[in-house]
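Appendix B: complex inputs.
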Amino acid sequence: MTGADVEVKLRESGLRVTRQRVAVLTVLHDHPHTDTDTVIRRVREVAGDVSHQAVYDVLRALTDAGLLRRIQPTGSVARYEVRVGDNHHHVVCRSCGAIADVDCAVGHAPCLTPSDHHGFVIDEAEVTYWGVCPTCAAAAAS
Amino acid sequence: MTGADVEVKLRESGLRVTRQRVAVLTVLHDHPHTDTDTVIRRVREVAGDVSHQAVYDVLRALTDAGLLRRIQPTGSVARYEVRVGDNHHHVVCRSCGAIADVDCAVGHAPCLTPSDHHGFVIDEAEVTYWGVCPTCAAAAAS
DNA sequence: AGCAAGACTTGATTTGTTCCAGACAAGCGG
DNA sequence: CCGCTTGTCTGGAACAAATCAAGTCTTGCT
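Resulting structure:
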């Protein structure tokens, strides 16, 4: 994803193109599942001084616009990733909190249909797999 | 679930039986998906003065012991429910945050197997359905 | 009944996040 | 290129959720 691609995405969503927004999208494209604090640090590396409010504002604005997806596994702080259309899921390490992408088991949202939906109108099924990552498994074995 | 049942469960898990722990388990049995703050209030209703720290400690201890399950949908605070063996899932209202139980789509944990697990050793698949509850849907329609 | 580990209390502290208000800067349509 | 609108900055302040620390009490074993 180039800076130009990011610009187009922003415009398509009716959002102005600013240095800060481009930086946030670029950072999250290169490093998915990043928490807010790390986003702030990385944004400053590529775009110079940016206030922490600006980053919070941008994350909120882009999430509302549907360009970002906010994920927050139990016990973790908020993390963000660029929203892509593939409806993928996540596997989280119980030991170190590492997150990896996993393709959807079926293919399109909602990829699962509950037996009894209690009258809810369901538009998405989010799956989180819990386990232990290879690194932590190796560390535990020794 | 009677107080005696709760006592047995605690002892089976090697935990001491205290007023606070019995109260927490009872409250969560009667009101699943309750957030920490509400647990504290309800515990105080049934068991008199209990420090908020004690409730946090109890929730942690019982979760570690496997008697409770902690759930935390994106954008929500931590909620707890008594852990039952049926591996059910949850449907969450995007509008008001209401949570309802949903039976597992397949039947046993892990009830879904990802195509590419990236070397992770997976022991559980947690599914969160997102949608709008009947109440909010009705309110939006009017 | 006595004892020690474990559980609880009190109170302060940290962490992540949001809100505020006014001044300034920048994007984009005309 | 001008001006309106939107976004960002400074920098505080406030917030709720959760955790830490030290001392006191209680449970359950002997």
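The interface with chain A takes residues 70-75, 78, 89, 91, 93, 100, 102-103, 105, 110, 112-134, 137 of chain B (CB under 8 Å).
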